[in-house]
Amino acid sequence: MANGWSIFIGLAVIVTMSAAAWFFSPKGENQVLWRSSLILTFVSCYLMWAITLLAQLHPMIEPRRSDIRENYLHH
Which of 45, 44, 38 is nearest to 23 (CA)? Predict the structure, then answer.
């Protein structure tokens, strides 16, 4: 199940993958392009995942059913 620690565990995984991309990117004239592309991809995917997870974990709007009659809501 998702809890508060999964954000930090995901961040640690992304930092590890970004460090690996930094050190193990192929040498040559396109090394900066490889590094930038991989790290930006990892960070973008992490941000999308984290925002989606947090939005589901703590929703700002409480869902309400409109098809229930008012006198059955409080019983």
Answer: 38
Within 10 Å of residue 72's Cβ, how many Cβ atoms?
A: 7
The model's pLDDT over 2-56, given as tens digits with 9 standing for 90+, comes to 677 888 999 999 999 999 999 999 999 999 999 999 999 999 999 999 999 888 8
Contact 53, 6 (CB under 8 A): yes
Contacts of 18 (CB under 8 A, 6+ apart): 38, 39, 42, 43
CA 29 from centre of chain:
32
pTM above 0.90, yes or no: no
Domain parsing of the chain, residue ranges? 29-57
